[in-house]
Every structure is written in C-alpha cells, then in structure tokens.
Amino acid sequence: MKKQMWALAVSALAVGAAFAQANDTISKVKSSGAISVGVRESSGALSYALGDGKFGGFHTEICQRIVSELEKSVGKKLNVTYQPVTSQNRIPLVQNGTVDIECGSTTNNAARQKDVAFLNTTYVEEVRIAVKANSGITNINQLNGKTVATTTGTTSVQHLRKHERAKSVDFKEIFGKDHADSFLLLETGRADAFVMDGSILAGNIATAKNPADFKIVGDVLNVEPIAIMIRKDDPAFKKFGNDVIAGMIKSGEMTKLWDKWFLQPIPPKNVKVGLTLSESTKAAWAGPNDKPMEDYAKK
Amino acid sequence: MAWNWQVFCQETTTNEHVPGCLAGFAKGGDQTYLNWIITAWGWTLSVALSALVVALVAGLVVGTARTLTNNPVISRLATAWVELFRNIPLLVQIFLWYFVLPGIFLPLREIPSVVLVVLALGLFTSARIAEQVRAGIQSLPRGQRYAGLAMGFSTAQTYRYVLLPMALRIIIPPLTSESMNIIKNSSVAFAVSIAELTFFSRQSGEETGAPIEMYLAATVLYAISAFVINRIMTFIERRTRVPGFVASAGGGGH
Fold first, then answer.
1. What is the mean pLDDT for each group of 10 consecutive residues in chain A (299 residues)?
2. Which contiguous run of DSSP H or E holds residue A42?
C-alpha cells in the first residue's frame, strides 16, 4: 500500500515537471497542432459561455484573432480547445501548460507577474458604485452610515477597506457570495450601494428586472488593467500577441469589438451592457503597455 | 510548491509586513491576516455553537413530540417540521431566511444576518437531531413507558423521569457527529455576509495571491474545532453511559 502511494507521488511529480517544461508556446503549438484557450464561464461581456461548448466576449474574441493569426504564421489549421477556468485555478493551469493563453478577466498585478506574463492591457476596469436611482447618492462620501455590498473574493473588498480607513467614512460592509447575490442585496434594499467593477455593475443592471431603477455613480474608486495571460518567459509568443493587439488597435478593429460587446445587444439574452469606452481604456490603447495594477495607483 | 506562510504577517490593506504578527489587536488600526483569521474563527465558533443550542432545544422538543402516540395532531406537526427542514438544502434555507422571508415579513429585515443564519443552521440541524431523539426513545423497550404509566406518572412525567434520561444517553454518539457537522456546516454562513473562516479564505486568497495557504489554515482551524467538540462529546458519553445498556468501547452489546 505504502509503495503504491510512493509510486503515485513520484509519477505525479514527474507529470508536473513534464508540463512545466513547455515554455515556447509557438513551437509547442506548431508541433502539436493544438492550442488550449482559457476562457471564463461568467466574466460578463469580457468572456462567458454561450452554451453548447461555445464561448464569446470581448477578450475571447481578441484571443480568437490571435489564434487565427497564429494559424497563418504556422501555416496550418489548429485544433482549438476552450478550457473554462476559474479565479482559483487560472494561474496554475497557465503555469503547468494546460492552458496556453487565458482570455478571461484577469487583473495584471505585480504578484501575478511573478508567476505568469501578460500581453499588453486591452481593457481597463474601473471600480464604481451602483445605487438605486432614487437614492440621491452620488459619491462615496455620502455612504457614511450606509450599508455597502460587494462580492466575497474580489479586490473590491480591499479597496473599500482602504477607502474607509483613509477617508474615515464609516459604512457597514456586507458581502454577497457572488455578483448575483451582491446585486440582490442592492435590489432587496439590504444594501444602499454595490461597489464593484464597472462592467459587472453594468451587466447586472442590464439584466435586472427594471434597469432604470439603478444607476452607476461617483468617482472611479480604482482602476485595474485587465489583460490576456500567457506563460512566463516566452518572449516570442508575447511579442506575437502584442503585435496582433497593436494591429487591431491601429486598424480600428478594437473599437468595433468594443461596440459589438459593450454597446450592442449581446447573446444569450440580447441585452445591451451599455458601457461606453472609458478614458482609462482609451489611454491603454493609445500607449500599449503591460504595466501592473500597482503602477496605475501611483500616478 | 513553495509555501509562503509569511502572508499571515501582512497588513490587510497595504500588504506590508507587520513585525510581530499580532500587532493589530493592540493598535486597532493595522490588522494582519493572522488577526483576521482568528476573528473569523471566532465567528465560525459563535455561529456554530449558538446554532447547536438552537438545534438541541428544538430537536429535543420536536423529537419527543414525534413519539407522542396518543396525540396524533402534535406528532404529525412534529413530523411535518422534520420533513420541512430535512428536505431543503441548507444553502437554500439560508437564502430563504435571508432574502425571501424578510420580503414577506418586513420586520425580519431589522434582524441581523447572524441571527438569521443561527436560526437557519439551528433549525436545519434540529430536524436531524429530532430524528435521533425519536430513534432513541423508540429503541427503548415498550415496557418502560408502561412501567412509568403504571407508577401513576403523567405522560410528561414518564418522559421526564423514565424515557428521556435513557434515550438521550443512548443517542450521544450520533449527537457527536451532529455537533461536529454543525461546525462544518457553519461554513455556508459566508453566503450571507458573515466574516467566518470560509469567507476569510476566499477573500484573503484573492488579496494575497496565496489562496492555498489560506485554505489550508482555515482547514486546520475547522478540523481543530470539530475535533475539540468530538473530545468533549466523548467525555460526556463516557461519564453518562448507562451501565450494561450502551455498548462500551470494545465490549459486547446489551
């Protein structure tokens, strides 16, 4: 029994090591004829499941463009598999080679840059406040004595805590299990405001029973660069991806994609997200870079 | 896999290393993840233990009521209670208490979520404890009930002096698992904004980029809590054993 356990442990280690070696994505893809694209099942209009094993969204479509350019450059049709990932497993899966390119909604930050690499920022997320339209709240300082909802396991919780301490605004925090729960807290009046990424707020409002009852108000509390994630130490693939992105920005294709996913009705419900292109995202497109979140906070 | 246990000494807003991990409790302002996980453990224990009290009281009453053969109305009501709370998943019950009931009965909105979660968890467990109490009472020879009645005791007195003292001691082993379960089940409280251990691991994992360390630490605390409950219950079991009636460890049955 004990021997079997050892054998299992050793072979597990060996498999792990074998995966960890693949670092040159382009030649790996060329030799295997396959590429694994990491996608999210519910990251709003950035990446989500359309059902039937299909995935769509702004970031997913950028990845599809990168893959089709890759097909041109290696000169053969690739076998593309979509691998749904979660916040918990996305980094390990990219590191061990299960996923070659992750096109979800991953924030580029300094801690993650130690483990993985990011292509140039394609989307800048702004943390905003959603309130009931008739509440009269217009910025975070008016939240004194109010209840603020946000979602467990997100960086927004940390922003709120920082804000509370820095500005000595005294509000009560409550946490939803997921974004739908947090929005329900706002909808049922358990919370006066919902603080979260702008795209998530806009998406939840768009699919609410009465979208007109809610609005997004106030200053931008924090910005986070969201980028496509690839394995570390793969300069060739990073350059390849960045070139595709730069080309899309230059040709105006990026703006068209924004229009398609954020301003037009999108499947499955054919509802508009209604999020106009923000100044921060425009700036990221004007000067492509892979700066982590921490660099945005400094300015 | 490189472990990074230093994260527990980080401050929760700046992620800077705080010398002397537990500094936060004294200063009030700066809080480390170590301070936080201890607070979260406190929430887990308070929710679980309060719910256990609710569960034991309600379970005892309902379980006893189910065995009242001469009062079919009460025993059917008790059966309905058990089926209601046993047939709905715990997470769904928590949401019913938190979102649906306050939507129907407006005064419930004023009740803090921790009270609602204690009620939800307590009543859910009460259905299971009620079944154990019933099984305990029904496992007693029928003659015991008749003996009590023959002594001239009322039904209440028969239960108070004859049936329950035996039945409750017999069911301590299953009650032990139920008490340990309530610690583990309290993890659903994170769904309604209680900052307990599961909430802590999900949140701090995202903030520090060290989710595995956070989950492991929370796992250890859950295991310790459940194990301590197990030891306490085993102690009670040993002290209250009915000689010759409950199988002693390794010994024969009755």
1. 61 53 82 94 87 91 95 93 89 93 91 92 93 91 90 86 79 90 92 92 88 90 92 94 95 95 89 88 94 80
2. strand A42-43
Of B13, B113, B209, the CB nearest to A165: B13
Closest CB to A161 among B12, B192, B211: B12
CATH of the domain at A42: 3.40.190.10
Assess whether A196 and A260 both reside in one domain.
no
Give the DSSP per-residue string, A105-121: --B--HHHHTT-EE-S-
How many structural domains is chain A composed of? 2
Residues A260 and A234 reside in one and the same domain: yes
Closest residue of chain A to B201, computed from CA coordinates: A153
Interface predicted TM-score (ipTM) over 0.90 = no
Cα A76 from chain centroid (whole Å): 30
Q: What Å distances lie between residue B143 and B117, B131, B159, B163, CA to CA?
A: 42, 21, 13, 11
In a domain, A23, yes or no: yes
Q: Which two tokens stand for residue A116?
A: 């993985």
Q: Which residues contact A298 (CB under 8 A, 6 or more apart)?
A: none
Cβ neighbours of B209 in A, within 8 Å: 109, 111-112
**Which regions in chain B score pLDDT beneath 50?**
248-254
**Domains defined along chain B, listed by start:** 46-194 (1.10.3720.10)
- Parent domain of A83: 19-122+227-297
Residue A56 lies in a domain: yes
